[in-house]
User: What shape does this take?
Amino acid sequence: MKKFEVGHVYFDQYACDHETISTIKIIKRTPKTVVFERNGKTRRAKLYEDSNGEYIIPDHYSMACVYRAERELLDEEPEQVNAPVEQEQPAAADNTIRFPAAAQAPAAGYSVAGPLVDYTMREMVLSIFDKSDLRAKELDFLAALTDRASSVAR
Assistant: This one.
C-alpha cells in the first residue's frame, strides 16, 4: 500500500480542468495526519486509506483536489534527450508523472511536441487494429493534447 513520505511531492488534477495540476510537498506526518505545503502555505490534513493507499482531501467542496500517495511527481534523468519514440518507456501504470531532472529539462516545450505527435499517431493506428494498450478516454486525451502540441511543432 502506498503511503505519503516526508519530502516527496504529490499531484492532483482539478476536476473541472484536467490540464491544471496542483502539487503538494509533505513536510511532516503522523499516523493520522500529514502536514503539507501548497502554494507557499503550510496546512494539515487527515489521512484516509482505501485499497489504493493513503489519500488526503485538504479542502471540502464538491470538486476539491484529492491527493493520493500513488500520484507522486518524480524527477528522473532521461536516457536520451532526443530518443526516437519507439525507444521511449511506456507510461507508468501507477498514475505517476515523470519529469526530467531540472538540469536536463529542455528550455521550452518545442522538443516534446514532435515526439508527442509521433507517439499519438502510432497509438491511433494501433487502436484501429486493436493493438493499443490505451483506453478510449486516454486516446481522446492524447489526441487533444497532440492537437495543441502540433501547433507548436509546425
